[in-house]
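Blackboard transcription, Thursday session:
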Amino acid sequence: MAERLPYREGEWIDRTQPVTFHFEGVAYEGFQGDSLSSALWGAGLRVLGRSFKYHRPRGLYSLAGHDVNLLVEDGERTNLRGDFLPIADGLDVRAVNTAGGLKRDRLQMIDRFGSLMPVGFYYKAFHTPRSLFPFYENQMRKIAGLGKINPEALCRPSPKDYAFCDLLVTGAGPSGLAAAIAAAEAGLRVVLAEEQPQAGGSLQTQHARAPQTAEQVQQLIRRASELENLELRCCTQVAGYYSDHWAALVDERRLTKLRTRAAVFASGCIEQPAVFQNNDLPGVMLGSAAQRLIYLYRVAPCQRAVILTANAEGYRLALDFVEAGIPVVALVDLRHDGESSEWGRLVEESDIEIFRGHTVHEAQPGPSGHSVRGVVLCPLDGDGHPDAIGHLKLDCDGVIMSVGWAPNVDVAYQAGVRFTYSDQVGQLVPKECPPGVFLAGRAAGIFDLENQMDSGRRAGLQAAALLDSYDGVIPPAPIHRGPPPSHAFPIFPHKGKKNFVDLDEDLHLVDFKNAHHEGFDNIELIKRYTTVGMGPTQGKLANTNAIRILARLNGKTINETGTTVSRPFHHPVSLEKLAGRRFHPQRRTPLHTLHQELGAEMIHAGAWLRAEYYRDGASARADCILHEARQVRHSVGLIDVSTLGKLQISGPDAARFLETIYTGNFSDQPIGRLQYAVGCDELGVIIEDGVVARVGEEHFYVTATSSGVAAFYRDLKRWALLLRMRVELINATGHLAAVNLAGPQARKVLTKLTDLSLAPEDFRYLDVHRGCVAGLDALVMRIGFVGELGFEIHVPTSGAQHLWRTLMEAGAAQGIRPFGVEAQRLLRLEKGHLIVGQDTDALTHPYEVGLDWAVKEEKPYFVGARSLQILRKQPRERTLIGLVLSQDHGVEECHLIVEGERMLGRITSVAHRTTLGMPIALAFVHPDRAREGTELQICGTGGVPISARVVPLPFYDPDGLRQKLKD
Amino acid sequence: MPYRLLKFGLSSEYSEPRMFPVQGELRDAYDVVIIGGGGHGLAAAHYLATEFGITNVAVLEKGYLGRGGTGRNTAIVRSNYLTPQGASFYQASVELFKDLSRQLDLNLFYSERGHFTLAHSLASLRTQRWRAEVNKQLGIDSELITPEEVKQMVPEIDLQCGGHQPPIHGALYHPPGAIARHDAVAWGYARRAGEAGVEIHQQTAVTDIEIRDGAVCGVHTNKGFIKTEKVLSAVAGWTTEITQMVGLRTPLVIHPLQAMVTEPLKPWLNKIVVSASLHLYVSQSSRGELVAGASLDPYELISMRSSLDFAEGTAGHLIDLFPMLGDVKVLRQWAGLCDMTPDFSPIMGTTPIRGFYLDAGWGTWGFKATPISGLTMAHTVATGRNHELIEPFNVSRFSDFQLVGEKGAASVGH
Amino acid sequence: MKIIHCPVNGPRPLQEFYFGGQLRAVPTSEQVAAMTDAEWSDYAFNRDGSPGIQKEWWYHTPSGTWFIAERDIVTDGFVRTYLFDQADQESHNDG
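(Written on the board underneath:)
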């Protein structure tokens, strides 16, 4: 391992804890506290990754996750960012997107063919002849993409956290700490989120050399930790900001959804690169990255540095190098006037050579192309253009750039802050902040340390004042004085065309010129054409320069040029964190465990689990179902219908209300009687059906479809309001259980268990009575959905299991059997009863399905009535009919009825094996083919034509004698 | 290696001509004004010029080309619709798409991947079978397949959905289902239309439409008044603003639709996977990103904001289907606007206002209709009569109670 | 996630609510009877989906509360929420 710089207070590494890890199969050592990037650079490695398109060697660049030069995978996880990945013993990673390893990446030859691939080249080629495109696409897909997924990887869902605070402060640098402390001292509950492992921000790097800084950081952190209402969360990114101050905080373990009442963005700046030839070579890096290396990890960025600057920061950087004992070969200042501050003077006094009004025009690669060997300097003319005549070569192995910044404000943008470009600062500054959102520090264009702290305090107090926690004086807003910290155009053309603007996407300067030439002269268009800013960092180092370039190409200002929109996330967030542990509630009836004991096969029915059928020894599914159905036809069966929607509707207007909701009449329905009811929407489409029981003058009990009841109940609530009806609505679906005891022997079974008289004259078909069943208070309805004598018994859920067991025991002599949903569906089909949603669709109205009788047109008004008037006048296009099929296989629901190429209709329900001994179906057909006896052709499975004959409905017991059974 | 690439390498100067001409001042009058510089408007302009010889046309775009739904959709093209009217219309679109790269001489990355609509319930399976049967009658390649066949073609899929969702019962498989580079479609049409003489004015907003005696006579813009007797509105999510100008009432309401992409990955997903029950659709772009979307936002909104709920829900459903994606990271989320109709079919063609033509109701199905809507609307504008493919979609179907029942198919319409 | 102020339950997250569409004047049975087919289909299908502040129905699912919200459908800003009453319906009729 290469030597680290000597110990310095504030460093992040723990030298007592060496760590061994593997990169590209080679073992390296680092220290606890190192990121993968710092450890590898510290170990002397220079090529850390390969670029997306040209597979150029790339090194450490931002050391802040603002580039993706070092993206690795460990076989399980991929696209891990070296800047954020802490090293640990056992860590074993490889660079993504190489062919044959990082060093000998076979795809590096692509770099030599760069000129064949100008911007958007893929739009101009490969599409003719058409037959070859799939081949080319395959090749391109293989070359594109970064990490490889492991198909065996395990998902590690983590619970999500919900948190609440008064103020969220993003960034624990000097201004963020000041904001958080001021707000917390004023009494706000503050969350201070910092994406780095330690608080301090630029105090630990930019300002680290000043002797008092380390103490200052400690003081701030101490003060922050003293405040119980201030929570500092390190390694936590504020990934996105949404409506009503809803923020997504992401740390190593989980997503925290934080509801705050206000936010301060003290998120600092992202240092921006200069654009010159080979500005992506390993060894070229941002000044802030160099400072992080020096002060946090004690790694020398290089052995001989050239610093390219356009601000005071570059001079301070030079002094950082001097103090660390790293020679600075030259300080190259883009400005002709140089630096007039204290740091300028100090550098002048040192033996560092200063080149004012110069730029680095080119970084020159060493023999392997894997590192910097030197630079070519050029003087700049009055317009800022490099003048090759005066060029000069210098040897160095590092080019450190400090030419400007862009505020780190993508999340503030999501929070609603709008920005304007300020020439005084050379960056975007806030123009409008929505209520409760504040910016502080460098994110707001405030650069001087004292000013940064002041702006932080001010933002914290402003938030406190807004939330009525502070009524003192708000200090004035500091403003930036002095020259702009950011150069207006640190971008230099070069004939070599390797001056990169977007490192993620391998875009260089000429790409922009060419895209503009082709007419992509709008920032959003040029973004989409060049893909600038669409890579993994979302253009953190690219967008600013791209806008500058476009502005210049258009001859417009930055503000006229505009910016692209910032969208979540700040740094990418894994799917498993976003997903969290997932909760998928499953509704079970109170009889669920009994069904399982009885060997039921369960199926999902909407949110419910229902018994599909009951397994019977080795019998096949179809046999079980038919057997259950026959049992109902011949003796007696029992089914759990607890999933039925159950509504209680009462009040003086209850009958009138039902008449408005359903198509039928209810006012004259006697107490103790039931009737079938159909509900339509305002367009006349059938949306509901069920049974309405009148249980009192002002009391009705209504069943509704399992899947529809929640929405139906919601609709009823609104209709009650709109129509000013005096009704009370209760959705009792979950309170009550229900079973249907059906079959010719049903009366015999139930008689033993109830005080109700079941004599045919006392308990008629479509009667409802309240009484005691199996010792339980029950509502008993005599219905015939399955076409047999049947009693539907509704009891409180607590008694459901008792009821079921008691009925099963009582029916033992009759051979009672439970039957499932499938048998029920078969039985109702034989009886010709439709299922809303299966035998109807999103446009079906009652006249199409033989429910004319249920529509009481003479009523003054009901929902859908007016639409039905219109629909009734129209020629009918389809009608629901019964079919007997010519064979007992090959027809499925939704197979079509055809006549040549004409589609005549569609099967809606089918049963191949029935208790009737013949295969039957319900189907929509055109009315001119609906006459009884008509032979129709179904396009069956595999396109095989199957004939069928139209028969009257119902198939079973057309006179309804069975359900009205008297003995 | 294609010759075109060599040409780039061999010429010292950048040899590509301008894709979009520099546009001069807006003129006083045009034969046709098209509002909306998205795929649909530009395609209509192209076909007006090339198929009907009408070149005195201005396309007015208030932002930049393809700013709306064109650049915000998940770029899926398919024709496996439920209704014969819908399926025939989209099938004609697919046919145009297949040859569009050549026609526009721009590589649209039209990539036939195969499109699965997974069914997690018997009810959904029925709907998928219905679609398959209708499609087959119309000669569209669609088939209901078993879970095992799904697994064979997408081995990474978890048929049991980790127990978080009802298992996959089967799927509608539509081999011609494709994805394309959506922006490029707009650019290609814009270039061709421009070459044919159509003017394309960006940053030009329509502020009002002048109607006299029930007929269009001009358009007010932020750059002045234009005389015209024919206006085509092709602004999808912004349609309600335009229809308000002409006093046309429609059922349209606007809902956002959100989507997201992951970091680029090496290719592994070669199919387009849609789950109707999970409200999810996902494909892998040629750049390697997974592009995923969900159903409409649940309430009306004319804003392209993002929501965290969407990202959380979509992430959960992605992992339900592909558990190994847990560590894959989401790069970016965004939203587009959908102008929704009650029957999930577009509103196209003539309107009660003479000279005002509507191309709207594009909901979540607009991109895939781009070529055919351009062609049929061009026909309609040029002749004043609805093209037969779009007759069922006329705005009059509402007053006539003649809806197109596409809604039944689309719990998620991609 | 958005917060919506239910007039009964106070501020609650969006997830607890269901959007019920624009508040529209529901014609009385007499009015319906007097409507032409064209007037009825206009009522049944057409909506005013244009930008601006819209009165609309929202439902708080856990408590079964319908109420009215005035919301800017461009900025998604809720102006106010209140329980439906007939006066509102009538003023809406007039408007």
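Lecturer's comment: The first strand of chain A starts at residue 14 and ends at 23.
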